[in-house]
Amino acid sequence: MTGASRHTVREAVQALVHAGMLERRQGSGTYVVSNDEHCGALAEYFAAARERDVLELREALEVTATSLAAQRRDATDISTLQAILVRRNELWSRDPDTESQRTEMVSADVALHRAIVAASHNEVYLQFYDLLLPTLSRSVEVRPVGIRASYEAQHTELVDAVIAGDPQRAVAAARVFISVLRG
Length: 183
Hints:
Keywords: DNA-binding, Transcription, Transcription regulation. Residues 1-35 form the HTH gntR-type domain. Pfam families: FCD, GntR. GO terms for molecular function: DNA binding; DNA-binding transcription factor activity. The chain has a two-stranded antiparallel sheet with strand order 1-2. It is globular and about 55 Å long. The protein is built from eight helices and two strands. The two termini are 23 Å apart. The protein has helices spanning 6-18, 36-48, 51-72, 75-92, 99-119, 123-139, 145-164, 167-182, and strands at 22-25, 29-32. The protein is mainly α.
């Protein structure tokens, strides 16, 4: 469904088991056992992680969450996504004059992606994504206006696919977005 290999998913789960956030129980499954202390440690780990590694984790999480959001979004999610997209695109259509304007642009972009994850109605995904937010905020770059037009179109397609309830289209849009981030 996400395109992530089983090996990649196993490695991610094993890392979370090793970090103490998941517990494997023989014959029963894998369970979340995280507490605030583990969350803080994991957030610090993400902050120090290589950008490529964070992007790969983001791909696995966002592609799946986008598919789920397209299947599970409700009327509140739709109106939230539409409002955040309008605000994001409005902010990103201008050149920022100040650091505070750049910060506002980044916040709007990150808020849109978080709203998509929230629309998946998977609380574990959302909590995990929230741990990534500081790292994601630092990695979002304010690009020149000419390049930003394509990002606006990509974000619009992503939201439109979720709103339309089309998981395949949403996954395709998420993959395009991530591939552009890879460069």
